[in-house]
Amino acid sequence: MLLQAIANRPENSALDAANLSDIALNRVHDAIYLIDCDLRIKYVNDKACTLLGYNREGFSQLPFSAIDPELRDSDVVALWWKLSVRPEGITFTSHHRDSRGELIPVEVSSIGYTHRGEQHILCVVHDVRELRRQKEQQRLREKQMSLVVENSPDLILRFDLNTRCLYANPAVRNWFGLSEQEIHHKPLTESVPKGDVGLSFFKLVSKTLVDEKGAEQELTLLRHGKKRTLHVRCVPEYNLAGKLASVLAVGRDITPIRQTEEELRFAHQQLRMLAQNFEQDREAERKQLARDIHDELGQHLTSLRTGLSLLAMRAPQQTAELRGQVENLMGLVDSTIQVVRDVSTRLRPNVLNLGLIPALEWLRDRFNKDGGCRCILVAPNEHTVVLDDASLTAAFRVVQESLTNVARHAGASTVYIIVKPEPDTLSIEVVDNGKGFTPGRVRKNAFGLPGIQERARMLNGEAAIISARGKGTRVRLTFPLPAPRGGGGEKQKGE
What we know:
This protein is α+β, with helices and mostly antiparallel strands. Helix content is 47%, strand content 23%. The protein has a 5-stranded antiparallel β-sheet with strand order 2-1-5-4-3. Strands 7-6-10-9-8 form a 5-stranded antiparallel β-sheet, with helices on both faces. Strands 11-12-13-15-14 form a 5-stranded mixed β-sheet, with helices on one face.
C-alpha cells in the first residue's frame, strides 16, 4: 500500500533528489533504490548505503545487476520489470551483494514509478538476516522442545476443542500399549482407559475447556497388574488471536513418591506408638518407684526416727555430747524423710490419684509458691472431669511442662490455667501475659514444645501453641474424652 501511494503521486517537475530522499526516509525504514529502464541506480537513501556499504556516488557507478546477481539474465530482468510495473507491484526474496562481496538475504518490494516522463522501478529492500536468525532460533527451540517432549518420561497429550487427540508422545503410547494411529485424531472417550479413571480424565479436560483455567488431579489406575498414581495437569493453549485452541495435558507417575510417603507415615506411626508405649512405661515406672520410695524407704526412715526418739527418752543419764549426737541424727533423718517425699512427689504426685482438677490445684499452689508469678486456675467442679490414668497423667504433664516454660522463659506476671469440658472433648489452656516468642525460631535442641505436641497426639488430640513477640503465649490442649464406663469413673474424695 505504501509503494502504491508513492508510485501514484502526481509527477512534479520540481521533484528532485532531495524530495525523493524525503519521501523515502519519512515514509519507510528500509533501503530505497530507484532504478531506471537501463538498470542504473538513480537514487538510494541512507539505509541503502548502510546496508550495502556504498556511498551514493558508488551506487551511481553500479548497475543494479551488480547488486542483485539474479537480474543479470535478460529474461529474468524482463519478467521482473513486467511484474513490477503492474499496479500492485511484486514482492520477492533475493540476495544483494554488499561492498565486501558478501550476499545479504533481503525481501524486495518493487513497483513502477514514473519520474519526469520516464518509467522507473522503485524498490523497497528489507534486510531479513535478523528475521531469518530469529526463525532459525525458533526452529532450533522447537526442535529441542520436540526432543524433550519425545523423550520425556511424563505423559504429554494435546486435545482440540472437540477433545480429539492431536498429539501423544511416546510415553503415552508405551504406558497404554497403543499405536499412534489408535490415538491420533481419536475422540478422548476412545483413547483413554474405560471406567472411573477415563471419566475423571475426561472431566478434567472438559473443565479446562469450559473454564479456560489450569486444572489438576491425581488418578489411580492399574498398569501391569500394579496400582499406579498419576498426577495430571491440564492447561489451556491459545492461538495468536488470543482464542482457546487446544488443551495440553501432562501426566507424571508419582507412584514412588506416594509409596515413600506411605512408608514414611507408617514409620512415623510406629515411632509414635513406640514413644507412647515408652512414655506409658516410664510413667508406670515412676508410679511404682514413687510408691516404693514412699512406702518402703519412707517407712524405714520413719522407724529409724522413732527408734532415735525412744533412745533419747530412755537414756536421760547420757552425756550432753551423746544427746547432741542423737539430736543431730534425728535432724538428719527428718531431712532425709523430706527429701524422700520430694523425690516421690517429683516422680508422680500422689494428688494425681484424686483426679485432674485436684492435681491442677496442687500444681497451681506449688507454682504460686515457687514460680515467681501469680497462677490462677479456672476450672469446673472436680468431679466433672473424669479421665483414665493414662489421659490424666498426659494432660497433667502438658500443663506441668507449660508452667515450667512460663517460669523459665516468659517473664510473665500472671498465668491462667483454663479447663473447658465439652460433651465429647476436653480443652485445657495455659495462657500467660509474658514476652512471648516466635514459634518458628525455637532452638532445635529444645524439646519442651515438641514434647507437648507428642503428648497431645498420644491423647488422639492436638496441641496449639500460639505466641508472638510481646503478646504472651497460649498453649491449648484439646483431646477427646474417654467413653464413660458403667458405674465407673474416679472416686470422689472422701469415698
